[in-house]
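Data availability (excerpt). The following record was deposited with the supplementary files.
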Amino acid sequence: MGEYKSGFVTIIGRPNVGKSTLMNHLIGQKIAITSNKAQTTRNRIQTVYSCDEGQIIFLDTPGINRAKNKLGEYMLMAAENTLNEVDLILWLVEPTTYIGKGEQYIAERLSKVKTPVILVVNKIDSVDEGQIFEAINTYKDVYDFKEIVPVSALKDRNTDELIKTIFSYLPQGPQFYDEDTITDQPERAIVAEMIREKALRSLDKEVPHGIAVVIDRMKDREGGGLVDIDATIICERDSHKGIIIGKKGAMLKKIGTEARQDMERLLDTRVNLKLWVKVKKDWRDSEFLLKNYGYQKDE
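Predicted structure:
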């Protein structure tokens, strides 16, 4: 057996290229929330992949796109700081020959970074082989990648090859986490994200960006076997509150039921979840409220 390796890897890419899906497949448990709306991942979720060869700690940065408000600025800063701190960057793209503004912006950002970059062409299950080669050809002129690895995160194709490639770029190092650690995000943060994911998936396009989730209470009930969780969904407008609650509370109930099922799988226990909805206008532009909802500038 060779030397034990360990290091930090970050996955970047435009929103919706499948970053969270890829991470969930590599780790084998649902940690990063997935939805087809931008801004799904806000905090740097760390997940840990352990095997005999070593340990890969993934930092899933918020997407790199131009900032529109304070939340956007915070996310961009978090993303860019991470790029210089890690051992390796995976840039996830779709198998296309069209390199849009989003990709150009990322390439421009990467040109200022010293960390090695592996291009991961995702969603290869959605196109034929010829198109995969064309995509690889197009991208290899955009940036000086160390490697290019085609995968399908969804269908779990070639992901073992990706893991092998990642290890070849990691330094020898210690085991940072126990083998059974999958994430260092406190459970409260993951539980909040699960609620936000269900809301993102169920609601109209205009509502979701303006929501945050706060866990007010999370407590094991005496006698065990049950966790009580009280959470509040914060939104920006009264009209949004109505949409989130839905007719006779149906939407809120749907969000709650789906989130609770995910939580029970994560925590391996029964969960009693209570959800409230509150309106806080313009929370995304308030430093105080951003801090309050767990978005720290100085991280």
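Summary of structural features: The chain has nine helices and nine strands.
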